[in-house]
Sequence to fold (737 residues):
Amino acid sequence: MDLSFTPEEEAFRAEVRAFMADDLSPETAAKVREGRTLSKRDMEDYHAALYARGWLAPSWPAAYGGAGWTPVQKHIFDEEAARASAPRLVPFGIAMLAPVLFKFGTQEQRDYYLPRILDGTDWWCQGYSEPGAGSDLAGLKTRAVRDGDHYIVNGQKTWTTLGQHADWIFCLVRTKADGKPQEGISFLLIDMKTPGVEVRPIRLIEGGHEVNEVFLTDVRVPVGNLVGGENQGWTIAKYLLTHERNNIAGVGFSTQAFESLLTHARHPRRSGRRLIDDPLFAARLARIEVDLEAMKITNLRLVVAGQSAGAPGVESSILKIKGVEVRQALNDLARRALGPAAAPFPSEDLDGNAAIVPADQAGNAAEYFNNRKMSIYGGSNEIQKNILAKAMLGL
Amino acid sequence: MLADSLSRLLADRCDPALRMKVAYAAPYHSPELWAALVEMGALHALVDEDHGGFGGAGFDIATVFEALGAALCPEPVLPALLAARLLVAAGADAGPLLAGDLRYAVGLFEMDGTALDEIETTADGGRLTGRKSVVYGGPGADRFLIVARDGARLSLHEVAASDAQVLPYAMIDGGGAAEVILDAAPARLLMADAGAAVQDALDAGALALSAEALGGMETALALTVDYLKQRRQFGRPIGSNQALQHRTVELVTEIAQARSIVILAASRMGTADQSRSVSMCKHLCGRVAQRVAEEAIQMHGGIAMTWEAPVSHYAKRLVMIDAQLGDADHHLHRVMAGLQAV
Ligand SMILES: Cc1cc2nc3c(=O)[nH]c(=O)nc-3n(C[C@H](O)[C@H](O)[C@H](O)COP(=O)(O)OP(=O)(O)OC[C@H]3O[C@@H](n4cnc5c(N)ncnc54)[C@H](O)[C@@H]3O)c2cc1C
Fold:
């Protein structure tokens, strides 16, 4: 297997690198590096820069403004974006709703929603999970009852990432009470400005606000907002699960985290000692390097396999489990590397003179705690293992 | 029995909700709870009878801190333990500390240095210059015990809080710490050669933190087992999945090991094996505590990622406890040194 990039691919890498140097706001990059919260505006500006360049939607068809990249190009882009500390693109519109509309939407739906995703008019969020329906998504209870040209929706969604910024939410709702639970689910687009939609913040373990509860009370949704047929929602959700696993391993982020940790560990302390000379620390870091190097190849192998198969298969579960393990191990080590200085809550009290660690590391402990989410959301590690045991091994 | 009344007091007056309320903003603890702990003798239990207390043995320390850990108590008892130990070693009066009249914090480590031989604070003509970093219990302390360097020797000094610049802040796992900046601060010399006393205080502190972690692990495990029985997905409790059952049982065996090493270290306090046993203990407890924290979060699922869920606060404490007074690697080095010395 040839692991080197072609000259065209290397040229593409140079283009991406130049774009990041010219068009990514240094303030935004600093916030990403330092683990500070991005404003809605920061994310919109990056979105707009990619849109202007025609790079916003790598896997959309060119007719809809997509970039038409190969998976390898996509991979190169992800690497360079992470290296430049670009924000993670919010996936809900571009990478989740769009593929659903391409496959299941009406022409009218595509023509209305897709341009608004691209130009940033609509910010989307994902309304799948409910308090009683996490891993067992088919257990969802939010009801949509037909009333003339509308559905009347009642229920509660939760864990809605960045719902506080969103204009629209795509929801799985129950449209049929009897039969198998999977057979009574529909995929519905809801304008968050509709009366009866209420968003309440959830504070996360490290103190940040990125997820929400969304309460739906007698929300009237036009029937035209149904995607696919009534009760076809589960098929759509499953399609999305296997088709949209972009950048799932987060190799670019891990590479960036590894490099910055290594730089820190090589930096002499005031006593002249370097963390990297501690054999126990060096062993921890070296182990991660080995995992990461293997991960890069695993990622490429599975990306290429997906390229020829047309869609990532169960391999994406392998990438998710291992990719998350590597990232969480790096977060763990970045926190350890600071010793007791990792513990202070990042705050203005600790800026300037009072700073005890470099700004780009002040958030290491917060990030470690926040990233525990990675093995829980998007199908927990346990659920991924159940999938692999069944679908890959036939157990 | 102090352990029983302490557990009762904490059961009545201290739970994760209190921690959420007081531990993340000034004054980073509850003055009322502090007063109640002092009154019932929780500090006296940390010092022997000859020096005004009624305990002071390894098991007394472990008992108190296990109870504090189980209740996720935000009170700055650790700095009191370190300070009391140092005052006693210096032949100074620990009475006002034990009576709750003066709160002490101890300034040991400095910016980006985590070893005793990286201490750079100097004492010159009764004045201290240097900066102590992440001083636990620093906010609101009346007095600081400061470890300074004098050539190859460590010396111990007492500084009034009003003579130092104190920059307080909250910790990510709750509780307060401070930067303590000394600029020719007037100080009282307590011990000119304090190396052994400082190591002894560090040993007592590491034992205390290990016991605190043990208490926290037990509660985090109990919360997790409850949740595994309660939470239903796919029409059955998530705890009916063997994958989760086995992992929970692994936590039980790990915690049994952690308890044993705490017992071992407590029993070795005051013997020639004190330091090495405590390092074994802090190493193992640091390792197990992180594993318990991560598994408790993972097996709870999303709910454990929220501020509102008590288990998230236990998890934060269990992970961050490792960074205090030497992490798992630091103490493993000390255990290794014992093997290499022969
Ligand atoms: C930060 C964050 C952001 C999120 N963002 C969104 C979002 O934007 N939109 C959205 O819809 N959802 C979102 N989620 C929800 C996420 O998808 C769910 O948390 C996830 O599906 C797990 O569900 P749960 O939290 O209810 O855990 P549960 O399903 O209750 O699981 C608890 C534990 O049991 C395990 N378990 C469950 N069933 C089995 C089994 N059969 N075998 C073995 N183990 C099992 C799980 O793996 C887990 O360890 C987010 C979650 C988080 C934490």
